[in-house]
Design brief:
Layout: E1 3-9, H1 13-23, E2 28-35, H2 42-56, E3 62-64, H3 80-83, H4 105-115, E4 120-124, H5 129-137, E5 147-151, H6 167-171, H7 173-180, E6 186-189, H8 191-194, E7 199-200, H9 202-210, H10 213-229, E8 238-239, H11 242-251, E9 256-261, E10 263-265, E11 276-278, E12 290-296, H12 298-308
Helix pairs in contact: 1-2, 1-10, 1-11, 4-5, 5-7, 9-10
């Protein structure tokens, strides 16, 4: 039986790839998508999500959610250097006609989890604001979800948006810390493993050779993403697969190896704000609150991803 999943996205380019990967994977039943701010505004993330669904010819409910952090002003602007001004590489594609459902993302998460106790996997690949809000609305859900897979954090490696912090956690550090403390069954798919993945540039031409609406769309937006990577990594011929790896873990956990760790988020620091601090000592002070991915079978994951995404 397919695993019921909800994806929470701030749809930029790797979110779009993750959405396509999830929808086209028979192991998963995407019962809903929620959107938030992060790579772009929540309005743009919602529009981009519908655009991907149009190319996938998929009818899935979408609920718009948070447009700002829980307790503070925005810490960073849109990720235009990486995802473009519109979040999808400034490529021109038809505007979708569909609208989000009339329910906030947090309420949608609560309702679906309670309708399907112990059956729903939440794949969170943006800020954790919607998830934190959902728990605040109904704390009972922490005992009713099947699992929560978070693309975020950098427990054993440097950050990407600051020297210490990964972008999704830094976007709303208080929300992340609240979720980490909640008791949810969390698997953290952070830069520790996602930076070990690479989609080679050759796949742009492979996708274009397929010449479908979906493959051409993915090639167009991913080319921008790959070009953006050259700003940060010298001579890299491809891009990381951050959000798709979180989907892969939902499909098959053997793509990664994890370690139980107690992880907290720095919500008070200056240069360390948003850092995910794991207690890696032989005798940690507190019991683990999540499984942290530390190794990935990158080659096997890549072949699985490219066999599904377009």
């Amino acid at each position: 039986m397919a695993k019921k999943v909800i994806l929470d996205v701030d749809t930029g380019i790797d979110d779009a790839m993750a959405l396509s990967y999830a929808v086209r994977s028979p192991e998963l039943e995407v019962i809903g998508i929620t959107t938030c701010f992060g790579n772009t505004s929540v309005e743009e993330a919602t529009r981009n999500t519908f655009q991907v669904l149009d190319y996938l010819e998929a009818e899935i409910p979408v609920a718009a959610g948070a447009d700002k952090p829980l307790f503070r002003d925005h810490l960073k602007g849109k990720a235009t250097r990486v995802h473009g001004e519109n979040g999808i590489g400034d490529t021109a594609h038809p505007f979708p006609k569909r609208e989000p459902i009339g329910q906030h993302a947090a309420d949608f998460i609560v309702s679906k989890v309670k309708e399907n106790p112990k059956q729903v996997t939440l794949i969170l690949v943006g800020s954790l604001t919607n998830m934190a809000t959902a728990i605040m609305k109904d704390p009972e859900i922490v005992h009713l979800v099947r699992e929560v897979i978070i693309m975020g954090g950098a427990v054993t490696v440097p950050g990407n948006v600051t020297p210490a912090a990964e972008a999704n956690i830094y976007t709303d550090p208080e929300a992340a810390e609240y979720v980490f403390r909640s008791g949810l069954p969390i698997t953290l798919v952070g830069l520790d493993v996602t930076l070990k993945t690479l989609l080679p540039r050759k796949y742009l031409e492979i996708w274009r050779a397929k010449n479908t609406r979906l493959s051409n769309y993915m090639a167009d937006i991913t080319e921008h993403y790959m070009n953006a990577y050259l700003q940060f990594y010298t001579d890299i011929q491809g891009c990381g697969l951050h959000d798709p790896l979180a989907v892969a873990v939902a499909i098959d956990r053997t793509f990664v190896k994890t370690k139980p760790v107690h992880v907290q988020v720095d919500i008070e620091g200056t240069i360390s704000l948003g850092r995910t601090v794991g207690d890696l000592r032989p005798k940690p002070a507190q019991p683990p609150n999540m499984e942290v991915c530390l190794e990935v079978d990158a080659d096997r994951f890549l072949q699985h991803f490219v066999s599904r995404v377009v």
